[in-house]
Write a structure and sequence with these properties.
Helix content is 28%, strand content 30%. It is an alpha/beta fold. The strands form three sheets. The protein has a seven-stranded mixed β-sheet with strand order 10-9-8-11-12-14-13, sandwiched between helices. Strands 2-3-1-4 form a four-stranded antiparallel β-sheet, with helices on one face. Strand 13 and strand 14 form a beta hairpin. It is elongated. The protein starts with a strand and ends with a strand. The mean pLDDT is 90.
């Protein structure tokens, strides 16, 4: 494999991406060329929604090609185009052979939720201070505990009395929140998702963690729950407001995540006819919102 590395301004990212795809690049990635410097820019977006920008003021693009000849020809052809003005070919380099499994594993270490509650990949020994832990390996884009929204939800579970409760994890993904609730003593847990692959992932992860829960499509959720958890995204959370609130028993808690700080007011407004949301935690630009019924 060979990489073509480019530098370009934001307004050239789209046309270069299309050109590289036409030149049969296997993949094209775009990064902030100023990442980890004072000039770094933060861009936030949501899956299924238009990207806020095509790239950064100074974007670094990396295109992957099967053969060196193809990579060098792509670099030569791009350099000759009018739209390449202001852009630069930085390098055409071979991708070093690596043990990709070992490299991937090295990127995931145990994640601390609280001082004694950890998420631990199966290839790691548990930290000595871990009194409770969830065994979970990085998988197919479902929650693995590394994202701030997941960590905030698990922190909430660890610090609130879910023991003995019925708990609903709506949009369960990997099932990590449902498993967390089970670890803290919830007695009946429904974990639901519209994606059957997520349901299968939840079942397997629950078995690996020796906990019992009911996983299925959204129609599995029935009745009232002492805690309703939904770590999704702001737009679907607004649509789901009446449904989620209807599942919270009197005195129960609603816990929402997947929300950016700037989206707090629109979530409060969407839920105002049902419950009064407040910001209960914040981390890296994301917030956790909760309400009591």
């Amino acid at each position: 494999m060979f990489e073509v590395c480019l530098l370009c301004p934001e307004d050239r990212v789209e046309v270069l991406s299309e050109a590289l795809e036409a030149l049969e690049a296997l993949s094209v990635s775009v990064e902030d060329a100023d990442a980890e410097t004072e000039a770094e820019q933060a861009l936030f977006g949501e899956p299924g929604m238009p990207t806020p920008k095509e790239g950064w003021q100074r974007s670094r693009m990396v295109a992957l090609f099967q053969e060196e000849l193809s990579a060098r020809e792509a670099a030569r052809l791009l350099s000759a185009q009018d739209f390449f003005e202001g852009c630069q070919v930085v390098a055409v380099v071979a991708v070093a052979d690596q043990d990709w499994v070992r490299l991937t594993q090295s990127q995931f270490s145990p994640v601390e939720i609280t001082s004694d509650f950890w998420i631990v990949p199966t290839w790691h020994e548990p930290p000595f201070q871990a009194k409770k832990m969830i065994r979970l390996d990085p998988g197919l884009a479902f929650g693995t505990g590394t994202h701030p929204t997941t960590r905030m939800c698990l922190r909430w579970i660890a610090s609130h009395p879910v023991a003995g409760q019925r708990v609903l994890d709506y949009g369960c993904g990997s099932g990590i929140l449902a498993i967390g609730a089970a670890k803290y003593g919830a007695i009946h847990i429904d974990a639901v998702d519209i994606d059957t692959a997520a349901v299968e992932s939840t079942v397997l992860n629950a078995q690996a963690n020796h906990v019992t829960l009911n996983a299925g499509l959204p129609d599995v959720a029935k009745g009232l729950y002492g805690t309703v958890l939904a770590n999704i995204l702001a737009t679907p959370l607004k649509v789901l407001a009446p449904l989620l609130c209807a599942h919270v028993e009197v005195g129960g808690a609603l816990v929402l995540a997947g929300i950016l700080e700037r989206q707090a007011d629109e979530l409060k407004q969407a839920y105002a006819p049902y419950l009064s949301l407040q910001v209960s935690d914040t981390q890296e630009g994301w917030i956790l919102m909760t309400a009591l019924a």
